[in-house]
Structure formats: C-alpha cells, structure tokens
Design brief:
The structure is a homodimer. By secondary structure, chain A is of the alpha/beta class. Chain A folds into 2 domains: 193 residues, Alpha-Beta Barrel (TIM Barrel); 124 residues, Lyase, Ornithine Decarboxylase, Chain A, domain 1 (Beta Barrel). Chain A contains 11 helices and 19 strands. In chain A, the strands form 4 sheets. In chain A, strands 1, 11, 14, 15, 16, 17, 18 and 19 form an 8-stranded mixed β-sheet that branches.
C-alpha cells in the first residue's frame, strides 16, 4: 500500500467488486427480474454519489434511499433516474417530490391520499409505489389498511401503481417460519395488482428462495460485501478495506494498566501499539478488549478500552512493527460480519458508522 | 419547534451554552490558568469549524485536535491560532506541520528527534509540546523514556518547550488512587521544566481538584455539555438537542411482533410510532429495546430492534401523536450521559457518532 505520510487512516472502497456483486444478483435472478440499487444511509456509509454512478453505468433501473434529503443530494447531478424514498411522504412534502421527480414509497392510507391529491392538482397520473407491511410493524399498510384498500381501490384513482413491495423481518435466519408467512401474505396482495411490478426480497431474501424474486430485488447489505447467507459462506466479494497507522509502539511492564479506567492489566511485559482508530471513527466502543486488528495478516488483540481517537493492540509477537506501519481493521483478513460478531452486533452497523475522518479511496469499475 | 416539512431530523447545537460552559471553566480555574479548546473528532461530532470560531471569539489561546488532517481543515480559514495535534508526528510529516504552522504533540523520543532535526534544518527555535505518559500506556513518553530525557536534555536543543502535558486514565472515577499517582508523577516531571507551561486536567480532572489545574486545562466532554462529575449533578449547560419526526403511527395487535428478528412481541394491542432514526444516524443498535425517546416531555420506550434508518417506539399513552410530529432523543428530557447509560456506553460515544444525515442548526453566541 502506498504510504501517504500525513494520513492516519485509509478507507478503500472497491467499486469493481461492488459491480461484480451487482452482476451476481443479476445472474441468480431471472431475466425479467430487475436489481434495485439500495443506497440509503449514504450507500451504507460508503458514498451514495459514487455507488449511484457505478450502478447507473450497469443500467440499474431503480434506486432506493431512506429520506427525501438523500434523494435530493443525488438529484443534483441527475434529473431522471428513478429514485424512491422508503421513509414515505410527510404531509406537505408532495410538491418537493413532484418538482424533483422523486417518488415516495407510500406507507399508509394517509400518504396515498396525499399523493392522489397531488395527482389531481397536477392533472398527472403519478408514478406510485406502495409498501404493504406483512409483519415488520414498522412502515407500510397494516393488514386492516390493506384489506380496506383492496375492498375499495378508488383511493388509487389518478395514481399509476408501478410497484408494490413488502419487507422481510427474519430472512437472515434460515427457514424462519415468519419469512414464508410474509411471502404468503404478499402473494395474496400481489394478485390484486396484475399490472404492477412486485418486490419482496432484501439481501437475505434474494438468496433464500427463487419464489421471493418477483420483478425487482432490493439487495443492500450484500451489494457492499456483507454476507446475505449468515448460515453459509459469503458469496459476495469484499468491497471495503480499512487500514490505520500505528502512532506509537510501547513496552508495557508487568503490572501496568492500559487505557481509560485501567481496564486491562498486563500479566507480563508486553509490546503494544497505539493506532489511529477510535469510536469517533465508528470503531464501536463495545469492541473494547474483544476485537482483533491485523498486522500483515497476523491478528493482534485490542487491549483495554477503545478511546475516542486511539486504540491499543498487542504486538508482542511482531517485534519488527514500527510507528507509521499500517494495520488492517477490515479487508482480506477480517470482513464486516466477523468484526461485528466480536461485539454482538451486525455488519450493517459497522458499515454505516465507518468514520468520516479517513480519506476515502475509490477503486473504479 | 419550527416545522420544516421535508426534514426528518434536526440536530441543534447551542453555541451560546457552549460559550457559557467555557466561561464556567474560566471561572473555576485561577487567573493564570488558560482553558484550551479540545475540538478533536470534529469537535466531538458537533462541528469543529463552528466551535473553533466560537472559542476564538472568547480568546481561547490553544486548540487541540487528534490528527493533522483535522488541523489542516481548521487552517483553511485561520493562519495563526495555536493548534496542536495530539496524535503526534509521523516520520516525514515535519514539513507539513512547519508549513502550516501546526504543532505536533511529541509523544516519543523518536518524535522529539524528528522535530529537533526540523528545527536544525529550518534554523528556527520550534514551538514544542511534549506529552509524558503517567499511566495511560497509550501515547506519550514512558517512564524509562522520561528518565532518559531528564538525564540528558540535549535532545531538546533547538526546541522551545512551551508546554508539557499528561493525561488522566481514571479521573472520572471519584478518588481513584491512580489519579493521585499520575498527578504525583507529573509533578515530579514538571519540576524539570520551570519555563514551560504545564497541563494535566481533562474534563473530570478539572472538576476533581485545584491542584490539577496548572497553567492550562483541557476540558473536552464538559465543553459539549457532558457531565464531568459522574458522581454528582451535571454543572454544565446542555449544548446538543436532537429531534426526529414520526414517519408513521401504527396499531399493533396482541401477538404481533415488531422489527427485525421479530424480537419484541406485543402482549396487548399497542399504538406505536416509527421514527426517522436508526443506527446509521449514530443511534447505537445496542439501544434496541432499552432507550426512551420523549414526546412532548413524555417518555416512550423503544420497541424491538433499532434498524438502519428507523426505530419504533411505544406511544400507547399518547393518543394524539401523529405523523410529522417531533420526538426528542437528546435535549431537556434526556442528556447524552443518560442515553449512554441505557446501553452501557459513555456519552462521548453517543456525541461523536451523531448522524451526518440530520440538518445542523447552530444557535449562535
């Protein structure tokens, strides 16, 4: 790796691997099935603008973000690629959506009503996406609201329902009974919309069963290299690599403690390294005393508490390490799922919190 | 609060309260003692540029950041305010420091050597800050290195040692024996530098004992409203307030589950709200099922798992809540320490990870 003297860390994002992951989704779904670009939360922390551009070059036909602000950021350099906002429609935000050619995913009868009013006001058949909740109880039309809508579809007058969707709660757990139940509920709803496209599968759903593919799959986590099949080997290519530099090498004495709260005491003299990585960089404080970083492929355990800007590791077995050398947090030796496992969270949280403080280096498609 | 239709969240930073906190530090330290501006990690996540400007207006004489990049960002609009980099000096970075008029905190004999070489090359007496480690085992000269330097100070030739410093490991624990021991060690070192200013106290150190004040205190957390005296009431003013909007109201049925992994099951029919807040916004996933948000002062418990962009709360006791309404995460009803407590972390981690996704609103001094 090139040694840039003044940098303390480097976040490398491999857009070529990301593109390969996208092609993998295309290859395992039928020809009529599209693959959406899920680029909410700044493309899971990796840079929405760059990922948007990469997937557009692969003819990705539909993008999803979480908030209108995220969509507007993408609209700055693109006026017509389909972008939908999963968070739905605030009362009074209809004009902002219309003017920017952005589509809200409608999550409730109230949002449908507001969007239909906008259609009437503008005298246009507005592109429409409806989210039916099938078990998440988070966003989307409830069972009662769904039945009411299907009994009387006049609420949809003036709307061009192009897509209906739902979202899995437990698809990452192998053969979870709720997944099949959600799929059955969605299948029943889908029959009422013969002309709309259907979308059900997130990353784990996409890899669980062909019957979940429908017309559009929405893999997010897997696109960024996360394992969509936690019970099996990861079929995705690694997209993210994060390395930071050693600031200082130290020789701790037997009986010394290290870090805040003096939470780790040395049982013998130990060579340690302090690296430019802290919880302000998204290296969760719950990784204290648990995670491993890698020096040239060799694991080094984190010693004591992770602090805001600094983390200490054991390098007693690496006598040649010196200040300025790089250690790996994510990459060939450790992926996001593995790092997340060490502190009981999920790789999604690791990805979306990766520090703003590091220079980002994009490996282009 | 003003209702901005398209926004899903709002992070408000009260620079007036921050300035009051700074004045509090001035009022409880002697006249000869300066108060540094610790603005590393983007001023604990709140915006280094704005905090820098605010503290400069209060004649703050010395700033600290963690990395050279952070210092260079501040130098874009300011050529001469003293800024020091706690992370120290990478081999070869001396020129970058010199040219930008930024001072590295020297953490090792090697860094002292490099800085002295730079002084010789440039034929200037370079401003110098030395960090002596007194127990953290993280950065700074070790006991052996300290003794060696004090025995032979020729390594400091050409350097103008303006400040020496150390850092407490356990000052937030009342009367921790290590704190007094560190203070004693530092006092012994200090005697060898009669002409340099001395700095020892971080936020909790500043409030623990007058004897830790010396010539410069370095409160970080307390400046941003965190409690520097965890065993007592918080003497600081609240600086941060974070509110997000309700996206949807739902009526969950007895026996329904909610969120990923269906981890919460309802024992009775329950009115819930889904709000625009997730772990991608720095609302840690470990807050799942534990934290409380506040609707107009009334606590509402988080239900099930926090997801990337969404969190569900119980609003069964608030029949009038509606989509678009605001709920408080941090502010008058809940401060960073309280929120951190609910998931076993510290407020520092909450602050430094506060989402990039929200509009920041600064209340000016």
């Amino acid at each position: 790796m090139q040694d840039i003297t003044n940098e303390s860390g480097k976040l490398s994002i491999n857009l070529k691997a990301l593109a390969d992951n996208y092609r993998t989704f295309q290859s395992i779904t039928p020809n009529h099935c599209d693959v959406a670009g899920v680029i909410k939360a700044n493309a899971y922390g990796l840079g929405a603008t760059e990922v948007f551009k990469t997937l557009k070059a692969l003819n990705c036909p539909q993008f999803f973000v979480a908030t209108l602000d995220e969509a507007l950021t993408l609209r700055k350099n693109d006026s017509d690629t389909p972008i939908a906002v999963l968070g739905g429609l605030f009362n009074g935000a209809e004009d902002a959506y219309m003017q920017s050619n952005i589509v809200p995913v409608l999550n409730s009868p109230f949002e449908i009503e507001k969007w239909a009013e906008m259609a009437k006001r503008s005298d246009k058949k507005l592109p429409t996406i409806i989210h039916f909740d099938t078990a998440m109880n988070r966003l989307g039309l409830s069972t009662e609201e769904t039945h009411a809508l299907l009994d009387d579809v006049s609420a949809l007058d003036g709307l061009d329902v192009q897509l209906i969707m739902s979202h899995f709660a437990c698809a990452d757990e192998k053969d979870h009974e709720l997944t099949e139940e959600q799929a059955n509920r969605f299948a029943k709803i889908a029959k009422h919309f013969p002309h709309a496209k259907k979308s059900l599968a997130n990353s784990p759903g996409l890899f669980s069963s062909d019957t979940y593919h429908y017309d559009l799959v929405r893999p997010g986590y897997a696109l960024y290299g996360g394992n969509p099949t936690p019970h099996a080997n990861n079929p995705m290519k690694t997209v993210v690599s994060l390395k930071v530099r050693i600031l200082q090498i130290r020789e701790a004495k037997k009986g010394d403690s290290i870090g805040y709260a003096a939470s780790h005491t040395f049982e013998k003299d130990t060579r340690t390294a302090t690296v430019a990585l802290g919880y302000a960089d998204g290296f969760l404080r719950s990784l204290s005393g648990k995670a491993k970083l890698y020096y040239d492929g060799t694991p080094c355990e984190v010693l004591g508490r992770v602090s805001m800007d600094l983390t200490s590791i054991n390098i007693d077995h690496i006598p040649h390490a010196k200040p300025g050398d790089w250690v790996e947090i994510l990459g060939d030796n450790q992926n996001v799922d593995e790092l997340a496992d060490t502190c009981g969270t999920i790789g999604y949280e690791i990805l979306t919190n990766l520090g703003q403080r590091y220079k980002r280096q994009y490996i282009d498609i």
